[in-house]
Write the C-alpha cells for this entry.
Amino acid sequence: MANTIITKNSITASAVPTSGQLVQGELAVNVTDKRLFTENSAGTVVEVGVNPSSITTGNLTASGIVTIPDNAISGDKVEGGTINAVTINTLTSGTVDINGGAVDGSTVGATTASTGAFTTLSASGTSTLAAVNSGALAVTGAISSTTDATLSGLTVGKGAGAIASNTALGSGALNANTTGGSNTANGQAALTNNTTGSGNTTNGRSALRDNTTGNYNTASGYLALLSNTTGSGNTTIGRSALLSNTTGTNNTASGYDALRFNTTGGSNTASGQGALYSNTTGSNNTASGRSALYSNTTGDNNTASGFNALQLNTTGFNNTASGLNALQRNTTGASNTA
C-alpha cells in the first residue's frame, strides 16, 4: 500500500508559518489560501512561486493590484476598451508608448496610423490636432472644452477671467478682462484691454480695443470706438466711428468716420459719413447727412440735417440748419436757423 506524505499545513485563512516551525527546504501549505511556504538558508520563511521568471496562464483574476514593470508586456494587439474582456478603469504611467497593433480594429503607429473611433477624448493640458491636408475633422457629437480654444488662430471662448457671461471670438479678444461681465467681443483685438467694463458688445477688428472700465457700449465696425477707455453708453456703426472717443458718453455715431475725433463730448448723434467728424468736446449736437457739422469741435446744441449742413461750424452753438449746404459757412455764429 502506498504511503501518504502530508506536509505541514493549516486551514486558517491568512496563516503563515514562523521560522521556528520550519527548517530549510521543509514545506508548509495553507490549504485555504492555496499558498505554499518554505524556509531559506537565512532562516527566513518565504512563499514559493511569488517571483517566477515566466508564467503561462489563461485568465488572470486579481482582487488587489497587479503591478507590471515597464516593457513587461509583449504582444501585437489590444482589442476594444477591454483586455480579455476585463475593463481597464485606470491606467497610470509616466509614458505610454503604443507603436504597433490595433485599437478597436484601427491601426496604431507613427507610420501606419489610420482613423479610429473614440467615445471620449480628454486632456488636462494642451491638445494639438495635426493639420489635415486633404480632409476635415468630422465630429458627429460635440466637442467641449473647459478653457478657451484656439481654432486656426482664432480664440473661441470666454476670454481672460473666464467670466461665464462673456463671449470672445477672435485673436486677442477680451484678452485682459478680469471681472467685467456680459461682454461680447467678436473680432481680432476686440475689447482686448477691457478689465472690469461690462455689458459691451463689439463686432469688428479692434472695436473698443482700449476700453478698460466703460460699460454698455456697442461698437460695430473696424476701429469703431477704438480709443474709448471709460466712456459708457455709446453706440457706433461704421468704420472708425467714434474712433478717438475716450470718456465721452451716450454718443451715437452711424457712418464711416462719424464723430471720428470726438474725445469727451457727450450726447451727440451723428448719422452719415463724416458727420460731426472733427467734434472733440462739443455736446448735445445732432448731425444727419454726409459731412453735416463736419468741422464742429466744441460747439454745443447744434442741429444739422442735410449734406454739408453747418459743415464749417467750429464753436458756434444753438444753430439749426436743415437742407443741402444749409449754414455751410457758419463758423462761430450762434442761434441761427436756416
Observations:
- Confidence is low (pLDDT under 50) at residues 75-95.
- Residues 262 and 280 are 4 Å apart (CA to CA).
- The longest strand covers residues 35-39.
